[in-house]
Amino acid sequence: TRKALGEAHSKLILVGEHAVVYGKPAIAIPFPLKVRSIVEESSGNIMFESAVYTGPIDSMPMRMKGISECIKETLHYLGKPLEGLRIRIDSAIPLGRGLGSSAAVAVALVRSLFSFCGQEPSQRELFSFVQIAETHAHGKPSGIDMAAVSSECPIWFEREKEPIPVKTNGPLYIVASDTGRIGDTRIAVENVRKRYLLEPEKVEKSLEKIGKIVDEAKNALLNGDMYLLGQLLNRNQEELISLGVSDDGLNRLIERARNAGALGAKLTGGGLGGCMIALADSLESARIISSELMKSGAFRSWYFSSQDDSLY
Ligand code: MEV
User: What is the mean pLDDT of the chain?
Assistant: First the structure.
């Protein structure tokens, strides 16, 4: 039987989450946890298989409506009938942890459907179909997740603009730790919006500061100045706290990481649960920070070098 594969990886937002929704820039990097989508010829209705749901795409639960819409629109565009396929999603990316799992699943899915038809989507085609799934999952996402999970290098992202590769001088040693609590990005984005309505000057000031931090971070990356980059992560975290998207669990891990030798640390992604990241000055230091975070109650912790595909 005919078979095709599509892949994507997860992502970490280095600096700029939330402010990116309001048109500020953000920088995201690839995170080497992967998802694969395998499409096979079969008979009858389109069947979907994943850890979350297995069955015909027409009976998907409400929260997966975006995925079924995305499949239908993509097949329609490719001129394929809505039958005779089996789609299997095989993902190593935990859900709802700010790692871009929903965007990564959709990117892998669209790539696999195109590949099944002997095609490769352009970036524009890819984003337009992934956007269907993301809009259902997140409301009004900035688009940074889908840009980041489909890019092989760090990106500079601004809403409605083409993502730009970011140059880095030397590897980044990053620790990512999961609080173990699902962070609902949709709710976090909505909370910031409500706060904006209540205290527009204060929120505007935070967003401005974050925009400047992201700009400085781009230069720190270019110059390989990891000490400055660490400080920028810390300053970004202060603004995320003032936007109301951090929480005690995240703050505790961030504090622990700093005490264990991190150059800087902050939440990553939507916040209110989910993951935090720390910047280390070596792989060995990243290993120590990671093990400290596990001792301090992190649910999971990874570390890696940005110039290497291995994840520890
Ligand atoms: C989620 O990874 C990043 C947010 O800025 C939301 C978005 O950009 O759509 C919190």
Answer: 95
Query: Do 77 and 59 belong to one domain?
Result: yes
For residue 308, indicate whether it is catalytic: no
Q: Give the Cα separation of 307 and 169 in Å (integer).
A: 11
At residue 42, φ and ψ (nearest 5 deg) are -150, -165
Tell me, yes or no, whether 224 lies in a domain.
yes
137 plus 14 within the same structural domain: yes
Region 41-47 average pLDDT: 93
How many Å lie between the centroid of ligand 1 and the Cα of residue 49?
27
Q: What is the pLDDT of residue 141?
A: 85
| Judgement on whether residues 10 and 157 belong to the same structural domain of the protein | yes
Beta-bridged to residue 56, according to DSSP, are 47
Same domain, yes or no: 35 and 119:
yes
ipTM for this prediction: 0.96
CA of 213 to the centre of ligand 1 (A): 17
Q: How confident is the model at residue 243 (pLDDT cuts 50, 70, 90)?
A: very high
Please tell me the number of Cα atoms within 13 Å of 92 on its side-chain side.
13
* 70 in the same domain as 152: yes
269 lines ligand 1 (CB under 6 A): yes
Domain for residue 210, yes or no?
yes
The residue count for the chain: 312
Per-residue model confidence (pLDDT) at position 132: 92
Atom of ligand 1 nearest to the CA of 144: 8
